[in-house]
Amino acid sequence: MTELLLFNVTNGLIIGAFYVLMALGLSLILNLSGVINFAHGGFLALGGYIAFTMQPFIGFWGALLLAPVLVAVLGLLLERTMIRRLYGRDPLYSLLLTFGLAFILQDFTRYVWGANGLPFTVPAFLAAPISDQLFFVTWYRLFMVAVVAIAVGGLFLFLRYTRTGVRIRAGTLDLETVSVLGVNVGGLRAYNFALGIFLAGLAGVLASGQLSLVPNMGDSLLMPSFVAIIVGGVGSLPGTLLGGLLIGLASGLVTLFWPSAADAVIYVIMAIVLLLRPRGLLGEEGMLG
Amino acid sequence: MSALVAEGLNTFYGKSHILHDVGLTVAEGRITTLLGRNGAGKTTTLRSLVGLTPPRTGRVTIFGQDTTRFAPFAVAALGVGYVPEGRRIFPNLTVEENLRVPLERPGNWSVARVYEVFPRLAERRQNRGRQLSGGEQEMLAIARALLLNPRLLILDEPSQGLAPLIVRDVFRIVAGMRTEGMSVLLVEQNVRMSLEIADDAYVLENGAVVYAGTAAQLTGDEARIRALAGATAEDWAFDERAA
Fold it and tell me: Using a CB-CB distance cutoff of 8 angstroms, which residues of chain B are in contact with residue A180?
């Protein structure tokens, strides 16, 4: 029983870590550009596939570093050519555009790599179980959580201590004032968009080592990531972090007792939070508040 | 050369025509004040000058460059500091972080000098914008604009909502900018105090310029000032206390 509980808790933490990476990227883009990026899951899958293709040439570690960068560059191109034209308009326009991009990205991966699942191999020492007692926890699971923790920690340090990070936080509340202070907010938004897509790409590479690669692998992560943002409070990145971990753990634990409710529980949590605290858990504080 | 010349500005919000052929000049090294009652179009004029609400027709020239179609950041990069109405401090950022947002053009103003001139900001550097008093927020908004090392400083109602003593401080600081060699465009409701420190004055009414001349000349026109302030000098002093 203890083992089963532990297994589900680690599962919940890992799925929560993926929600966090996805949701932080979505949150960054939503906060600064007002765009709900439905294509985020497509970027995630693309990150996994690019890593898969690059791995024979540059190895696991090279692919882990380089694939998210390439996905971010693609994100930057799409932002500069299409998405930025819809800033400041009715949010419905950007929603339709990213919804369309989601289909295009998914069919593109299906066209290039095929619809069947592909195996992504991780280094042997990471694939091994931690110990005989904890045979169900591989080193790779710990590794994923560690990489997510480093990425999230790095993001928060970046936003707190660099000038660009401070400007992104300022722009979340008042982009107009940031612009009259001499900051090119178009560039700031592009940079921020690429940063969000980088996180999606990283999540994609990490997920490929655990699940098999399929073109729609991002779909199952996208809705819970939106839920994580709402539960944590729109506009608050610490809230997004908390929300992602919370719903991940909750669905992991519920799997143990009532497996068929595992997907529903996150929506129940969202409903309760919205009833009791419509702003979300940390929604009242500003970013990094 | 003039710091700023605006000619024939016609600015719209949607379909409503707000500014009608507004023209004004800010001479270099002088303080120009733009007066007018609520809703006369003062803020819209400033927004048209800095690129936030570009005019439909007309031309804005800043330090000899046609900036009519410039984005706000490009106008700022020419050395235009803007202190917006309501101060617009970033409430979620600390004082220190607020001061990291502006583009830092080279010049005399640095964060260290800002803390020297505004010691109160140095004391509160770890406090968030939302925790500051109105006066402290105004100081921060001015300090933030100064870090750009502007050649032209544009202020939109810096005295709004401040206690009379603080208002004096703010006006003293603005007057001091002239000795720094800065040109200043000051929008104000506080007619008498603005005219005290200004060299040139404009009056807006219903989106059109109805007076252009020296501040001294306008100060002598008691009837016009009474109409602008909406009361006699004594009543005005009382209004100020009530605010």
Answer: 50-52, 72-73, 75-76, 82, 84
pLDDT of amino acid A289 = 36
SS3 per-residue string spanning B186-222: EEECCHHHHHHHCCEEEEEECCEEEEEEEHHHHHCCH
Chain B contact present for A189, CB below 8 A: no
Q: Please give, rounded to a whole number of angstroms, the shortest distance from the CA of A287 to a CA of chain B.
A: 7
The verdict on a CB contact (< 8 Å) between B98 and A286 is no
For residue B11, the SS3 value is strand
User: Whole domain around residue B109: which residue ranges?
Assistant: 2-242
- pLDDT, one tens digit per residue, over A4-39 is 888 888 888 899 999 999 999 999 999 999 999 999
* Strand B80-83 to B152-156 pairing: parallel
Summarised one tens digit per residue, pLDDT across range A146-184 is 999 999 999 999 999 999 999 999 999 899 999 999 999
- Check whether A282 has a pLDDT greater than 50: yes
State whether B91 and A286 contact (CB < 8 Å).
yes
CATH of the domain at B148: 3.40.50.300
- Interchain contact A282–B (C-beta under 8 A): no
Question: Does residue B101 belong to the interface with chain A, where contact is any CB pair within 8 Å?
Answer: yes
Dist. CA A46–CA A52, nearest whole Å: 10
Number of domains in chain B: 1
Residue of chain B whose alpha carbon sits nearest to that of A185: B73
Which is it for the CA torsion B208, B210, B213, B215, positive or negative? Answer: negative
Task: Give, as one character, the DSSP assignment of residue A123.
Answer: P
Cβ pair B22, B45 in contact under 8 A: yes
Domain spans, chain A: 20-219
